[in-house]
Write a structure and sequence with these properties.
- This protein is α/β, with parallel strands linked by helices.
- It has one domain: Metallo-dependent phosphatases (Purple Acid Phosphatase, chain A, domain 2).
- The chain contains six helices and 14 strands.
- The strands form three sheets. The chain has a six-stranded mixed beta sheet, with no helix packed on it. A five-stranded mixed beta sheet has the order 4-3-2-13-14, with helices on one face.
- Strand 11 and strand 12 form a beta hairpin.
- The protein is globular.
């Protein structure tokens, strides 16, 4: 509850990035079992509930793992953590809770951080927010336009900045938006999830989209960054199927 909107990882040898898990408890357990080791930090990119069969169990497991290993696992916020703020579908987890449980879980996940950075990498759920520097991320308010960019935004390789809304709550951003903000933040690679139909690599391999849930019918992938090795683009990361 005390963690900032922006998480800065400085004392790690490897950082393991995990995409949407969406009720895939087996995926979360496998990642924790295989990678929660000395020198490693795990970054989960949001969307822990809905779509899958074990939403509550998945979220409870990750929360307990976070409590037990506070400096080795970080849970970022996705759009499915913002059910009280912006309507979403499917929302089987949220719609199945009684009022007391709903308010409890919502009050917890709404405190999750929004962005993580380490060396040349920035990681979040959807799209880069329109900020001038990293410090601005710490001031982003729940439900604001910049929050919506981070949790709901989609990318396309098309030229342009903010292009359109694909549907309610899904703003679409182009190549110029990506390049402009990455240049301001002085990062080489963005790691994200959220957008099932996005190419795995975009923007000359500077943007990587991963998923770690069986709910999408595609391979469950994670990305591993060895912070002791130089990084030019996202293809220098280790992409593993779990």
């Amino acid at each position: 509850m005390k963690e900032p909107r922006l998480v800065e990882i400085e004392d790690a040898q490897r950082v393991i990035f995990v995409g949407d898990t969406h009720g895939d408890l087996e995926a979360s357990r496998k990642v924790v079992r295989d990678y929660l080791k000395p020198g490693n930090v795990l970054i989960f990119l949001g969307d822990y509930v809905d779509r899958g069969f074990f939403s509550k169990e998945n979220l409870d497991f990750l929360l307990k793992t976070k409590v037990d290993n506070p400096s080795q696992i970080y849970l970022l916020q996705g759009n499915h953590e913002g059910h009280r703020i912006l309507e979403l579908s499917p929302a089987d987890f949220w719609e199945g809770l009684d009022s007391k449980s709903y308010n409890l879980y919502a009050s917890i996940v709404e405190k999750f951080s929004l962005v993580a950075v380490t060396k040349d990498i920035i990681a979040l759920h959807g799209v880069l927010p329109d900020v001038e520097n990293l410090e601005e991320i710490s001031q982003i308010e729940l439900g604001s336009e910049k929050w919506e960019q981070i949790t709901w935004g989609d990318f396309t390789e098309r030229e342009g900045e903010q292009l359109a809304f694909i549907s309610a709550g899904r703003p679409l951003f182009g190549r110029n938006w990506f390049l402009r903000i990455m240049n301001k933040l002085d990062k080489k690679v963005l790691i994200r999830s959220h957008q099932p139909r996005a190419p795995q690599f975009m923007f000359n391999n500077k943007c990587l989209t991963i998923f770690t849930s069986s709910a999408y019918g595609r391979e469950r992938t994670i990305a591993i960054a060895d912070l002791n090795k130089p990084l030019k683009d996202a293809r220098d990361l280790e992409i593993k199927v779990i």
